[in-house]
Amino acid sequence: MISLVVPVLNEQNNILNLLTKIKIVLSENDEIIVVDDGSTDQTYDQIKNFPCKVIRHERNLGKGKSLIDGINSAKGDIIVFIDGDGQDDPSELPKLLLGIKNGYDFVIGSRFVPDDTKNNAVKKRYDSKALSPVNFIGNKALTFLLNTLFSLNIYDSQSGFKCFKSDKLRSLNLISERYEIETEMIIKSKKNKLKILEIPVYRYERENGVSNLFDIPFGRMKFMLRVLKVIIYGYIFWK
Asked: Pseudo-torsion of CA 99, 196, 110, 149, nearest 10°?
């Protein structure tokens, strides 16, 4: 059984289309868990009648808290995460699940992993509107730091499209409340010796709205500082 967790915040014009695409990919025995993280638009009205489990935060608690609540509610032996903005394509989910089937514990849908590992060839799987130059540089810098400190070989540390064996995911005891949870997952997966795989996926321009992370004062700066704090703390204290 698959539990697919969708954290969402103010995506009234994107969420229903995304859920419809997800429903096509999953079987009847699988479950969709939508965590509405304090949306102030009509997001909840869009999802409340959709055939899925809905967890609603009365106020914004952060992406990390949304994912943790989704994990705690999930019944599946595989847990999948996909962001609620519709930029990742649910039709690529079978590629992630194949990685789990082949014995990996944690599979990341990556925009940057080489398509041909022998020649290190990478197709461009996003456009400038899906990933701005500033965000690209920030992602690469954080990923380089993670790889250097933790002896990893990750290409896309900030991808929100990923899946885990549920028992392995729960063993990580995640605590991050906001976007830095993506980094915590990778560090703790390495520390716990999980088998990690990256597979190539595409990242599309959002059809409607703007990012809730970067559309706030000093959003990028706050994000970077939170992630750096997790990296430093994890390097020193997580065993």
From this structure: -170
